[in-house]
DNA sequence: CTTAAATGTAAAGTTTGTTTTACATTTGAA
DNA sequence: TTCAAATGTAAAACAAACTTTACATTTAAG
């Protein structure tokens, strides 16, 4: 599971804390997600995708591991 | 969180057990998902969406609760 | 250079996803 | 109607998501 959250964030010049509060999770959750430390729930994934106005697949990609 | 798994399954005339083994989870997991008893991980959601050849958003929908 | 904001990281704890086992009920085909 | 397959459900156990607190490091602006 890979994701491009930090890229999307960079484009919009948004902070981890900003995104976190926008989607209702802690900043560490966003930080850990960007570090690919774990796999989020679909709900969180969809909230993030919605926030960036992109489909889930544009931000999250299945890897070999999955 | 709503989903249309059982509809997609009906269309393809596929059993819960079939889908379960196709995406690598237990049959109870699929059953519980259809009953909306919990929210899956993005990985599982994407595997299910891929299996049905549809985007995640076509199968999973955020509700008020989320 | 200095300072504040942003980020990385880590441990402990809570909650929630997922598996396993097991059994009861429904459905469909013969 | 009978039997097998499919589905519903439930409890215990385990794994993984997510929070909280707390601190160290990096980055950017003044």
TrEMBL record, chains A, B:
Gene3D superfamilies: lambda repressor-like DNA-binding domains
UniProt keyword Transport, yes or no: no
InterPro entries: Cro/C1-type_HTH, Lambda_DNA-bd_dom_sf
Domain spans labelled HTH cro/C1-type: 5-59
Pfam families attached to this UniProt entry: HTH_3 (PF01381)
PANTHER family for the chain: HTH-TYPE TRANSCRIPTIONAL REGULATOR XRE, TRACRIPTIONAL REGULATORY PROTEIN-RELATED-RELATED
Name assigned to this protein: Transcriptional regulator
């Amino acid at each position: 599971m890979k994701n491009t959250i930090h890229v999307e964030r960079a484009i919009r010049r948004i902070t981890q804390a900003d995104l976190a509060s926008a989607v209702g999770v802690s900043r560490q959750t966003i930080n850990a997600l960007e570090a690919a430390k774990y796999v989020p729930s679909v709900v969180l994934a969809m909230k993030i995708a919605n926030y960036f106005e992109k489909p889930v697949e544009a931000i999250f990609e299945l890897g070999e591991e999955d």
